[in-house]
Amino acid sequence: MTLRLSTVILPVHRWHDGGRERWQRAEELGFHAGYTYDHLSWRTFRDGPWFGALPTLTAAATATERLRLGTLVTSPNFRHPVTLAKELISLDDISGGRITLGIGAGGNGFDATVLGQEAWTPKERADRFGEFLPLLDRLLTEDAVTQRGTHYAADEARNVPGCVQRPRLPFAVAATGPRGLKLAARYGQAWVTTGDPKLYEEGTPEQSVEAIRGQVEKLGKACAETGRNVADLDKILLTGFTPDRGRPLESVDAFVDFAGRHQALGFTEIVIHWPIPDSDFAADQRVFEQIATEAAAQLP
């Protein structure tokens, strides 16, 4: 399968001061998809501009025609399945069926405590995600849903007319643990990873590839347990969090080498960050655009 190349555009620019132009340029460059992070704030960007993911994607949907759009990723940290489903159905309609929902269990960063609660433990995050995702699946595929769980409930939640994409918009499930991988196998149309975070500081690119290979194998086992062919899932690598860091964006050749090693593991989509000066995602814009337009032709 041909490797797709996508980009993630962080929501740090005012729409009328560079925001719109980046999404339109992403489409012009031929990216498969444009994603954005679904956080209320994030890491080193916490004290600067940061806009909402779903309004940003709505604006991007009206400014583009072909580019797929999505989150990388949404989480239960500050979302509820009932309200999220309504927003996603609306966004899928506005975009003409171009939305992918990247979704995961969340972490313990700023989003985990901003609503005034204590950060959930890893087990609590897994428990909530295990309830959140199946309920969201129902909400996006059924006209009316009533369900009561430990953490989430819906009481005759109406979602007519449903998604433009049928039976619903695709889920790209971010997971590396056993419970998350089972959810990806059951509900995902794609699986997302950023690699092994334990290797980011002191690991090597070779160790990272082997760790990701292990993740892919675990995904395959989870699919087998649910009676699903792992080849049916797209496999998405969000770059920038492996020991390679920004090196794949230093040249077209460097990116082709990086992408080829991960394509060999079965990945169908590589996502690179739109350059942001003076940040962890700083890169030469010219080289970034060369990668977008030239790299695919050099891959199998």
Annotate the secondary structure layout:
Elements: E1 4-8, H1 15-28, E2 33-36, H2 53-63, E3 68-74, H3 81-95, E4 99-103, H4 122-141, E5 144-148, E6 153-158, E7 171-174, H5 178-187, E8 190-193, H6 205-225, E9 234-238, H7 252-263, E10 269-273, H8 285-294
Parallel strand pairs: 1-2, 1-10, 2-3, 3-4, 4-7, 7-8, 8-9, 9-10
Antiparallel strand pairs: 5-6
Helix pairs in contact: 1-2, 2-3, 3-4, 4-5, 5-6
Q: Major sheet: size, sense and barrel closure?
A: 8 strands, parallel, barrel
The largest beta-sheet arranges its strands as 1-2-3-4-7-8-9-10
How much helical structure, as a percent, in the residues?
25-40%
- Write the element-wise H/E pattern from the N-terminal end onward: EHEHEHEHEEEHEHEHEH
Give the C-alpha Rg: 18 Å
Contiguous low-pLDDT stretches (5 residues minimum) are none
Q: What percentage of amino acids are in beta strands? A: 15-25%
| Class by alpha and beta content | alpha/beta
Number of helices: 8
Oligomer: single chain
Shape: globular
Q: How many strands?
A: 10
**N→C terminal distance:** 8 Å
